[in-house]
User: Fold this.
Amino acid sequence: MSKHSVQDTIQFDVKAEQVVTNDTVRVTAQLVGMILSETAEQSVRESIRTLMKKFISTDWQFSNTQRSAHASGREQITLTATARVPESENYALDRRRDEAGRDSDSMKIVSAVIDTSPTASQIEETQRKLRLEILKKAQDELKLINEAMNDKYRLGQVVFQASGSDAANQAYAASARGGMLSGKTAYGSGFAEDDDTIGNAVKMTMQASVQLRISRN
Assistant:
């Protein structure tokens, strides 16, 4: 009896997951102030930097600056300040922003919001590891299938995609990676005994559809 293949292609899904722990937070602060219309831009900048340094001493980035006329005859200024800081700075932010603006008659920090999501570089590195893990699983499965079949198969196609349970996170993952989809869910973190940070852990998952094709060689 001649040997023959059961089918030309075999398709299956492979999934991998890893936990990434972020020990930094992104702070976004909204500032509002009233200044004299003749106040020089350089003076305004120095006042803002001084205020933000009192809040959290780090390098801040400023955006969305707007100056508009006010009924009082002064100018109202609004802007956004952002910075990535160690997680240890994430405490008593409402009290600290109030204290920072206590000595300032012109500028106040009206709100401060924290984002504990992993950095773009952490996401990219984790995705790289997930892809390699999935490819390793696909190779292991290929070896087992070839041992069980009469004909030999090869990896024909591997299509990475978000896992179904993480579909709600696709928009975030796509923007963070600029293309390939993966999911993330809040996971939790243990407290390291030799560290003074808690850490914000996220479980990232990646799924791939694998197609094996019969080798004609």
User: Anything to note?
Assistant: The CA atoms of residues 64 and 156 lie 49 Å apart. Residues 120-148 form the longest helix (29 residues). The domain at 9-22+119-214 is CATH 3.30.110 (Translation Initiation Factor IF3). The mean pLDDT is 82.
